[in-house]
Amino acid sequence: MADPDNYTDPPTFLSHLQRNPRLQPYEFWPLVADSTVIVQHLSSVAIFVACFTSIYQEKVSPVSIVSLGSTCTIIGWFLWDFWVGQEEAARTALRFTSLPDQASNGSTKEPRRYASTDFDHSRPSSSNGSELSGLGLTMGTGNLEVPGNQRYAEDLLPTPSHSSLLTPTSSASTGINSTASPRIESEKWPPNSTFSAHNEQRLTTIRSTIVITAVVAGVSPILKSLTVSTSKDSIWAISALLLCLNIIFFDYSGGVGVKSVFSFVDERLAANVMDRLPASLSTNAAVFASIVLASRLSDTTHVYYLTLFSIQVFGLFPVFRRHLRHISWRGHLFLTLVLVLGAGGGLGLVLSSSGSWPGVVVGMLLWSLVSAFGMGGCSWWLIGLQRYKNVVTGPWDPARPVIRGGGWE
């Protein structure tokens, strides 16, 4: 008599039982380091609330707040633009190559564009050290200099950019020796544009800035009268709820979300980039909260300034923070310290009756202590929770594919 389909041999039933087979124990200091992302965002929200309250209580001029915010935004944009340029230069040197056979045969066929998984950067170089080998391709390195930011260029956007490519110099068209090293040609995007892709991105950013500034200035009179018939208690409750939604649904993963003109060349690349942008619910909730709060201000220009400041804090600043974390860990820690001190000083200025410097200093100390205690306490609490993890697996469980490095195992 045949055994049923669900038959299990009793003596060997528990021989392959495993408990927590993929458990990765947490460590204290890495958890504290990762929690700086949360502290940065909480401090940013606290700074915005302190700025609104200062304007509402007429302790600080809104012009000074927006001027400081705009100055920081412009400096951050220049840094971001510099980082993107370095990233594209590094990716050009790392991701694109040409077949020597095309150069020797004078072929004009467009070279293949390789994905990030095509290259094995851990592959040792050739014996003479003058060539890079991989997938049967060789590329001379005598006059090819790889920038020092090779590491973060691979981490920012795994999919190769379409901003530039390496093509061989054809002997048939130029008369130059076919063994010459490859040259770099900048690809234009859009194709009929006279600017490079990076310059097109800059122009797009400038145009978007002008349009957003003009739109906010145009709708400021409407926003001022948006909540005239609503009580203050309802406004404070709605704003607090929206800011809580922003904090809860914010993307703390730390992935770099950069939406550039290159994203529209490939739909898969666009999806890959868009998945790493901040959650739309979080950003929309913060902007809506700022609009609701701005509607309680006394002047139309104040409404304009606060709305513009909220776009800088909740829309642009998170992108800069993600880039800075991937590029410079020391810069990330320094920015965390500045935000903690700024949030504490702003809350101390708002809560103190006279708005004097002692209140600012006390606020800095209290917010710093609360942040340090929260980072350390929550890290220890999360480590202690691992003892209660109990996942039992065995041969009776369905097989689960493991995806690593873009391939199936």
What does this structure look like?
The chain contains 13 helices and eight strands. It has helices spanning 28-34, 36-56, 62-95, 100-105, 150-156, 171-174, 197-224, 232-248, 267-274, 280-294, 300-327, 329-351, 357-385; strands at 18-19, 131-134, 137-140, 164-167, 183-186, 392-393, 403-404, 407-408. The chain is globular. The two termini are 37 Å apart. The model is unreliable at 98-103, 107-190 and 257-278 (pLDDT under 50). The strands form four sheets. A two-stranded antiparallel ribbon has the order 1-6. It has a two-stranded antiparallel sheet with strand order 2-3. The protein has a two-stranded antiparallel sheet with strand order 4-5. A hairpin with a 2-residue loop joins strand 7 and strand 8. With 409 residues, it is mainly alpha-helical.
The first-to-last residue Cα distance is 37 Å
Mean pLDDT: 74
Strand arrangement in the largest pleated sheet? 1-6
Shape: globular
Low-confidence runs:
98-103, 107-190, 257-278
Return the structural class.
mainly alpha
Please give the number of β-strands. 8
Q: Rg to the nearest angstrom?
A: 28 Å
Q: Could you give a short account of the major beta sheet?
A: 2 strands, antiparallel
Helix percent reads 55-70%
Number of DSSP helices?
Answer: 13
The ordered H/E elements are EHHHHEEHEHEHHHHHHHEEE
Strand content: 5-15%
